[in-house]
Amino acid sequence: MLLADGYDKAFIGVATRCGQPTLAVYSVDKCINILMKDYGMDEEMAREWFDFNVTGSWVGEETPLFVESMSLDEACELFKEEENERTESKKNLGCKEKLATSS
To answer: What are phi and psi of 63, to 5 degrees?
Structure first.
């Protein structure tokens, strides 16, 4: 099981799935708080740094999970927003493809 360096106080447990390695699980909110307290970042800077440098990193199939606490309603709303962004992105890509083939 891989652990995230510097985030021991944000560790909240482990995750398991059938036939997959056990993964370390961390609280995103606690990770952000660590960055703010230990490195003097404001919340926006900490979140941006965390998103790029931590959740944006892949270190293999044992890469830890980072959980963002929210209600089911909030999760559904987030899913809808992501779906809308993907749909819009596909529409834009389709327009670019049409423009490229028509010239």
So the answer is: -55, 130
